[in-house]
Design brief:
With 663 residues, the protein is mainly beta. Helix content is 8%, strand content 50%. Keywords: Signal.
Amino acid sequence: MSLRLFSTVFILFLLSSAMEVFAQRPTRIPPVTQVGREIQPDQRQTGNEGTTRQEGEDQQGGRRKLIDDSTQMVFGPKTTLYFFERDIKRNRLKKHELDTLLNNFHYYEPVAKSGWKYQDLGNIGTAAQSVFYQAPVMIGTTSGFHAYDLYHQSPDSIKYYDTKSPFTNMELFFGGGNRNMMDLEFARNVTPKWNVGFTLNTIRARKVLNPNRRDDNQTVKNAYVFQTSYKSDNDKYLLLANFSRTRHVVAEQGGIIPPSVDSTSLYFTYEDAKVWLRDASAIDLRQDYHLYHEYELLKGWQVYHVFDKRKQDVTFKSALSSPSSNFFDLYNPERFNRLDSTINYNHFSEWRNEMGFKGDIGPLYYNAFAKFRTGRMKGNFQVDPYGFDELSIGGALRGEINENWRFEAEGEYLIPSAFRINGKFISPFLEATYTKALYKPTAMQMLYRGNHHRWSNRFSNIGLDQVQGVIKADFKRWSIRPNLTINRVSNYVFFDENQQAAQSSGDAFMLIPGVKTSFNVGGKLFWETEAYYTLITGDGADNFRIPEIFANSRIYFDSPMFNENLFIQIGIDVRYRSEYFADAYSPAMQQFYLQDLQQQRFGVAGYPVFDFFLNARINRTRILLRYNHVNDNLLSVPGYFVTPDYTGLKGLLDVGISWPLFD
């Protein structure tokens, strides 16, 4: 870790410690009520049992005591709870205990946290897109610049806290090759019903390919969030608000120069690789203001309002002199605006207001709303901005017998030509969902003016029918969950082999069966697997590039040691994608696009990647060790690719620590 990053971490630690000292004035401790808690099937009881014993928290009359036998207040993960706005809005408030489990702790970077279901450029913070087709949540206009969505914390994913003591959590991850991340989180109750907090997230990831110096970073991210939650004394009024800002800077390299272009360029040389671009950069700046508040007019009947103000500034800069000009001459030969350099700038902004009412009648929940969005996209080479005004109405319905048996339905109609309908059935043995949608292409796909690309389109809305189902067969020592996804996508908009926005004239049908399994041998040895097979047919099938086989598997030992003073997981991960013609990446547009199947330029070969990991917890502190790509240079090929001309990681050791403080 560089001296600059170390100094930053040390200063933040001192600040958080000072805030905690300041926060130690006595506060009134409200009664602790029972709260709901979601436990995933792969979570182990051993982790939380150890925490319970260490915190000295016992049960009395169905409630946890905050005061032990010596009248000393005991704070810990079970007295610091968090919740999400979506549960408040759906009248299904669940306050979650802090995660102290070891399962998946070694998956610290965003792509790994997704279960490796994203295709990136081989380093933390680089452009990424989902491997599988994703059903849209927003049916209205979006910017279209989504390459860095994975690293941005959207307002609806922010945690709100209820803390009985000041809470600070510090997570530091030191990746091999100076790929570093830091997460700092603080929250405290000002009063029993008013909580404030903030988070700080940073990435400093050195270039994996051809770095010039130790701190020659490929990714520099700085992001922070301020959040607050407030409830009135009579419990009728509730307010949730947050402000977030993310500045994500990436040094674009264009990938490794193919040996077919330069015979002296070789793959899998990493630090010695020859790359196309040395002076190109992309910046994605996002800023969100978000407010949700509700008021209970009558018992079980509330009115609510949601306000959002968002902006996204996207910039790409590169000189067009040698050697960078060679890349653009080959892949983006047009020069529409500037001959000596490319500076593409796009600004997207939107305002949203949603008003509605909701309530409960016995086991039935209902909701109705009206929503208005207005915004625009403006580029530095556009004469007129691409503006939009969208009015939609919608609602939701839920019937719930108990936590295990329920149905949900929701819908939104964007006047006059877009909609989304979603239904879900949940039981102890089966979950099934159906989604039907007609959603808008992005602003960037409709109108774009850049130095190398330009278009003005009038695309039709994109249609989707999706059916998903999973059978749940969970037993004491093992579980198996077969699942199936069926998609029909019509009028799909994508970026073709010429890096132009295009719309499919035919439908694509996707059949994706899968399975998740977990086996437990003797309560200490575990084997978990997730696998999918994808079959795509129809006239629009060539517009989707998805590996036929996608699989992750893990075998590990999980057990407490030394009288449960140490909890440990040690094991091996393996992931595999079969060979496919993965989408290539265009830095100037910040978009993934189709390779030309006729030329068959670059097939991303099927390659199993093995990682060794060790997760441990001592008291409340968790640590991880992970050695990436254990089989580096051990197979018939020396490595693997994640995107055409972008190699995956070589063998590197990562270290991480999570350190929560509760008083």
